[in-house]
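Progress against Task 2.4 (sequence-to-structure conversion) is shown through the following example record, which the project officer requested during the mid-term review.
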Amino acid sequence: MSERKDGSIPTFPQVDEPGLTSSQVQERRDAGQVNKSQERSSRTLGQIVRANVFTLFNAIILGAMVVVLLTGQWKDAVFGLVIIINTGIGIATELKAKHTLDSLSILVASDYYVRRDGSNQRVSHDAIVRDDLLWIRSGDQIPADARIVESYGLELDESMLTGESRTVRKEPGDQAYSGSTAVSGMALAEVTAVGVGSYAARLTAKAKVFKKVHSDLNEGINTILKVMTVVVIPLCILLIFTQMRTVGGLQTALSNGSWRQAVVSAVAGVVGMIPEGLVLLTSLNFALAAIRLARKQTLVQQMESVETLARVDALNLDKTGTITDGGIVFEAVHPLDPSGESDQDALAQPLVDVCAEENPNATGTAIMAGLPQVSPSGTVRARLPFSSARKWSAILDRSGRLWYFGAPEVLLASQAEAHPVVEAQVTDLANRGHRVLMLADGGTVRRSDAGQDYFQEAEALPADLIPRALISCSEHIREDAAPTLAWFREQGVRCRVISGDNPATVAAIADKVGLTGAAKPRAMDARDLPENLEELAGALESVDVLGRVLPDQKKAIVQALHLSGHTVAMTGDGVNDSLALKEADLGIAMGNAAPATKAVAEVVLVDSRFSHLPDVVARGRQVMANMERVAGLFLVKTVYSALISLGVVLTGIPFPYLPRHITYIGALTIGTPAFFLALAPNTRRYRPGFLKRVVAFALPSGFATGLTILAAAWFMPTLLGLDRGDSSDLNALRSICAIILFFMGVLVLAQVARPLHSWRGLLVLVFAVAGVIGACIPLVARFFAITIPQGGALAVTAVSVVAGGVLMALAVLAYPPCARFISQLTSRR
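Structure tokens generated for the chain above:
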């Protein structure tokens, strides 16, 4: 800890313990028993690089690129650039996540005082060693686990570890855990665990374990890649064999060098079947969404979290920090006996005195601020600070009068039946959303007992307390809470409030902000929740508000909602929330949350504004809806490439186009327009079944495109008198097939971009014109081997395009029955 503001060294009680000697401290340093954690996140730089470089997608594309480069046809290998871009985005994103996890620290690094060689010495957080005698003073955050040796009224706030405010009085022999904070008193403690062995470090280690966010989109793409792998390898071998035969067989191909063109032709079929642009576009779209959210003070720590935002249908909210801003507002003193000593003015002085602790909590601060005309009297002889473990505090004034202040149900626990009117008033105030406390008279003690150490010997509650007043406070409700909750209701997201407070009070606040619309929120005490997860899942379906929730119940609630098939998002701010946030599909931390909580959350609302959540969810829905739209473009290419490859193998014809053709066509009809379509506004709610719908669209359109190209490759040499064995005629045939394929791609793009009466129609027109103009530019035409047909060839090409258009129209009509068939097929499985 630091020196006092005036620069003086803190004073400590006289103790006999000398502490460790310098040699003993050095021995522990040599043994590594110092308070420094060497733990890092579970994924090293090498692991991150390997995970992003050695993927199935990269293996297929890299293998195809190397094969093409070996042939010397580098122009046909430009498709390999997508590996570098996609891998770079993935590595950069995960390195950012690693940096966040590695910097995770629950403890505040500061200086502390330890007793060594018979004197008190100031040391840094990392210099504390095991068995050190550590001084704990009010305001200190405990740096290591310790056992209390001497206590001088020490009380610890363990909320960073347990979640709710847990102010606990510590006595000699008690354990004090790292991460908790001293709110009052002082103690001398023996350090029992340091560094990675401390409680805070163990909790942090659990939170630090890297968790890859589940992505339906990436899972669908990986499924496609796995299927393509099974198809690609044998088909590639067959394609190479077939293409060798078209140039006279293996011996002839090796002798005259035509094997190079055969291999390039085979690669054209392989590359076309891999939706490499979809992988790249997915990464780019996630990254752009994260950048847009960052501009709105929302940090997305894993790109895939953007997709999860679209799927959330259950949102667990912490009351404080979301619905309320954590501020307490004093409202009124309600005398329980208007005559005599229970007059409001007479009660104000003892109320302020009992709240005027050295480190008053939020409620005490609010009460003193609400009674500015009353100052602490200075007549308090003994004090027992408030503790959430007891839920009450007490003072003894100079006259020997005892005053108790705390939760009514605790102060009157032994005599509830004697005060039915008080109980009814407490219930009424709580049901109206107030936080209710009680000031009670404990009578007068004998002068001989009225010493400063009175509460060290008499900490138990008297059985004959007299209620004098109820004090009502309220939490300040955020202005954006009601409209934000209304938005979630309209979007079909079920919100539940989870709190450690009285369920009736929380339910009243939830009702004020319209958690459930016009209906009253259904509340339940978490102490009555079943422990069995299946039973808990059933109970949660009929509950809107949970009060008195213990920290270990939060994770169980998330697990139970998962059993019911929900995609769960959860907000949190305490260290105790970190494991529940990791269990949720989407962990959301407020900007003022504990460092551990922010580090493990997928999304951090930097300025702690709950109203950002609709923007967050809307952005996720935009990504998913648009990616589903454009995924059809890429899968159509996969379908027609597979069909064309199969047709080539079965009929033994040269492959109808080159890899550079598919690069040119893909850039103008798939990749670049898909980028613009993916950024368009779209608030459509996500529906499960992404892959089924995309496949249902891609099959008919892909078959229409593939059959059109195969028909041109089969019949056009006869119609135009072309010789497939002549390299010049083969190049002309491939150029014509590429042109037909381009126009079929434009038709698919138009189908995906609908409705075309908006900017989307202009987008399709721009890329169609760009493709035609590009083919007319000599430099571009030479690089991509495109030749504009003339005369009869042009007429036949035009007829082929029209025929392809007719097939595409039939494909549009075939989409609904295809979608139903795929749905039935998958449901049977």
